[in-house]
């Protein structure tokens, strides 16, 4: 019994009246002919001229609900209607696995598509985007709306067509990359998107939380010396890994660092790495340099930290796989290989050196944005997931979205058993195989969820030795995913899967499987995130089906090892637990959840820090993209060019003062290479209105240039087009350099902490100064090039 109502309870109570309205309209809409029902779409569009989307919601939802029933043979349940209303309010609807989130999506997608501005339905992979658009597109098109889908292999002209549709299904990566590419376009016709108005994000926690630590980056290649990466790797392997002594809580809160041993400390809890004083001294000796912290040695410091990170914190078959002489990244949340994705800033080359494969050129960042800043550009956004409440604070703080739990259509009857805790991994694996054998004898389907490819292969080998037939689903065979998942609920099926099987595809039971007790889910360790564990559990017990979930963990698992397994070892010893015997106690489960919360807090802090740094970049990016769009839209920027000329003159005059007087020589050197005015003499600088005369002379000179261009190309407005072209090229050149410079600043900014300065404030201040300098360079290069433009006059 619940004594206190939750936030979700209160919010669902508020929308009961709307749900009732929609249900009461059902008999009326069921009476309509197909043509009458289809005509509702145009009626709603006309009414939107005078009414709001909220006014139309009950009728629009009733109409698309009836269309779902006629076209798809599925009618959204009242709880699904609740989910649709919550999403239309710009919130996250938390709906359990198997509750039909794909169908729920038709409600807010149809309503918001009536505006004609476009709806983006965001999924986590191309397979789901294609599947959902093919299925749900039938009902949208039946109701007179267009529906499209964009996948990774699609060319720009086709993308533009798909974005023009009323509803477009697409992955978060493709959506973000198209935004960046549009803002690198040199002609308006090359842009494919038509604005960011409303998006529905499926598996919203995966997109906005899990992937938020990895920014989207469009890269070009830059020259690299392969030998330097091999040298960094060789030296990194010579350094000794140390550790930081444990601190008490008071010292930790006070910011004490503890005592460090070795040459570097790799902190797996926070995925951080830093050099000790001894390590710094050794690197300085290795590279024959005086001070590793000097700005000219930043690249050495960066290269060594990358090599150490690759060797100490990144693990083969967990973070990446090696295939065909190439290091391929693995999505740690889904277990999927990410083809084409590479770490930037030399980290990927460090991994290639570590693994002895071909070292490919380092990437130069041409455009970048974080998912947080990208999705916050939408006018309105909403999401749906099976597991969102554990991250509700982050959804609210970063995205302005709260999470509302939607009740299930049928009660959940799955049994979630207590964790079994073993001393070692070997004991745990043996216990898992023993449990699989026992459950498999009665034909109950089993899903064994693993964190890594390595564990899935260990267990597979152990099951084979016991003669138990099974399927394995991991990053090494993603093409078989749908087929394997489809069979995982069959009577007698045993499936081992990394996290990739956890999202997007339901495991459906046959009748014999239900009679045998439903899907038995076994977790081979607790994840860093409670959500990932809940996702695995949620594979079982969908739509009121029977099922069981149980986690087998060991004191050697990463989570317990990093968060104090010593005290659990003493518990084993004090209780006299024999080898191979587990402990099952609620206290241990609570301790594990406490450790998970700590990791989640660390990750939240990391993502929040990323956003705070990226916000500085975002402010700059907004200005650059806004100015680029003015140029692409064909706006007359002539007044901007004249303003640049004036700004340059004023700036160069100030730079040319010697004491209280303007130096003619300095002004000649500073100004004339940009604006080719006659040589300035000392006497000129002493005349009244000298600076004003400079402005006038520069404008007259520019007008003469324009007159020559008009003579050569009459009625073609050639000078206006040249202004736009040169400004665009100059902006792009310096903006790409600014991205690189800001990245270098970010990597070195921690050095200011030794001066007890606020690193984020320092980053903002220095970044602002660099942006102003970039702006000056853009002005000077653009104006210099414009004064150099020479028309070709043809003789008649």
TrEMBL record:
Which positions fall inside the Helicase C-terminal domain? 416-589
Under which EC number(s) is this enzyme classified? Answer: 7.4.2.8
Per the database record, which ranges form the Helicase ATP-binding domain? Answer: 82-221
Any idea where the SecA family profile domain is?
1-584
Keyword Nucleotide-binding in annotation: yes
Record carries keyword Transmembrane: no
Any Pfam family from its record, for instance, is: SecA_DEAD
Q: Per the similarity annotation, which family is this?
A: Belongs to the SecA family.
Q: How does it assemble?
A: Monomer and homodimer. Part of the essential Sec protein translocation apparatus which comprises SecA, SecYEG and auxiliary proteins SecDF. Other proteins may also be involved.
Please give the function described in this protein's UniProt entry: Part of the Sec protein translocase complex. Interacts with the SecYEG preprotein conducting channel. Has a central role in coupling the hydrolysis of ATP to the transfer of proteins into and across the cell membrane, serving as an ATP-driven molecular motor driving the stepwise translocation of polypeptide chains across the membrane.
Entry protein name: Protein translocase subunit SecA
- Organism of derivation: Fusicatenibacter saccharivorans
**In the UniProt record, what gene is named as encoding this protein?**
secA
